[in-house]
Amino acid sequence: MFWFTQIEFENTQLMKTLKLLSVILIGSMLLTSCVAEVVIEEDVFIEEPIVTLDEVLNTYEIWYVDIERTKGNGEIPFLQKAFTVSFKNGTFYANNNLVGIGSNGNGFGLDVGYYDAYRTEVDIDHDIDGVYRLGVTQLSDNQIELYDGVTNTSYYLIGHQRNTFDYDRVFYDNIHYFLQEYETWEKVYTSEYGALNEFDNENYLQFLYYGSGDNFKSSEDPNGTPINDIFYDYMGHYEVYDIADNFYRKTLTLDYSFLDNEFFELSVINDSEIELLHPRSGTVYQFKGRGHLLFKNSKNGKNGKKVQNETKRIKKADLKLRTL
To answer: Which residues does 218 contact at the CB level (< 8 Å), separation at least 6?
Structure first.
């Protein structure tokens, strides 16, 4: 009896030990399983490429200065007289002249200074006008704003590549500036046909920037007269406008002071010669430019926007340049 009981007791203890071992083993497996499912994820930072301001400025070879959108009461001289500007490896270029536009400097224009680009600002050191620090805001893929905090003035630039930029359009939409790029225009041809008229006697025309008082002058001095010796007999104001459905032909009105107006159809032979058709007489004249003016070294260049508005001499065609 005692022996049986002792054996039974030992069996019972053995069962308890086996159960305890089973519990420990199963618990260990479960714990291991749970630990295996715990995943510690670290924050992953993806460093996006940073586009520098210099890269933005160099994205386009040509930046067209949309002068009509200029805001503010001040003026940045080198932007006011530029048709296009370019930022190229630290050098600042500008097309200030229509004569030779598209070919001067391989389309970039003249080297007029240098620049340094920072995070959101560009320092431009112009050869004539000095140093300007301008804030730069990218408005779209191909449009930027240059802001001068000193004068509270903004200029808007539209980006283009040289091989797709329409230099001809800029030229013909701004013929009134082209006429100002020579000290004088000398008559070199008068057609044999056409009725006699008073303009037959005028051999020189001079076109000045708007706001300079009487902004055209004419002279009856003989051909070959030195530029500085020309005496201008007449003066007045001039206007250039489009001709419907003819992009390459314009109208030119010479509004003489105290005299009648003379009206012409103007066409460009090349960047130093023009042709004037006088419809009233049927006579054709040709004038050649003398004394080319490089506006890099001129304080005048394109006339100020205030004067443009006051004199109301802006051609309707200028407004088309907003969509260049």
So the answer is: 202, 204, 205, 206, 232, 233, 234, 235, 254
The residues that bridge with 159 in the sheet, in sequence order, are 63
Residue with the two structure tokens 């003989």: 222
User: Could you tell me if 149 and 135 are in contact, meaning their C-beta atoms sit under 8 angstroms apart?
Assistant: yes
215: DSSP letter: -
Record the tokens describing residue 67, joined without a space.
Answer: 């002068």
Select from 112, 254, 233 the least CA-distant residue to 179. 254
- DSSP annotation of 120 reads S
Count Cβ atoms below 10 Å from residue 239 Cβ, excluding itself. 19
Measured in degrees and rounded to the nearest 5, phi and psi for residue 136 equal -120, 125
Residue 205 and residue 217 in contact, taking contact as beta carbons nearer than 8 Å: yes
Q: What is the pLDDT along the chain (324 residues), one digit of tens a residue?
A: 444 445 454 555 555 555 555 555 555 554 444 444 545 555 665 555 578 999 999 999 999 999 989 999 899 999 999 999 999 999 999 999 999 999 999 999 999 999 999 999 999 999 999 999 999 999 999 999 999 999 999 999 999 999 999 999 999 989 999 999 999 999 999 999 999 999 999 999 999 986 655 699 999 999 999 999 999 999 999 999 999 989 999 999 999 998 889 999 999 999 999 999 999 999 999 999 999 998 765 545 455 443 443 332 233 233 333 334
C-beta separation of 79 from 155 below 8 A: yes
Q: What share of the chain is helix, strand, coil (3-state, %, to 5)?
A: 30, 35, 35
Cα separation, 223 vs 127, in Å, equals: 37
> Which residue do the tokens 């924050």 mark?
43
- Whole-angstrom CA distances from 115 to 73, 75, 159, 191, 289 are 24, 19, 18, 51, 34
Give the span between the Cα atoms of 265 and 19, in whole angstroms: 115
Could you tell me the two tokens for 319? 């407004």
Tally of CB atoms within 10 A around 39: 5
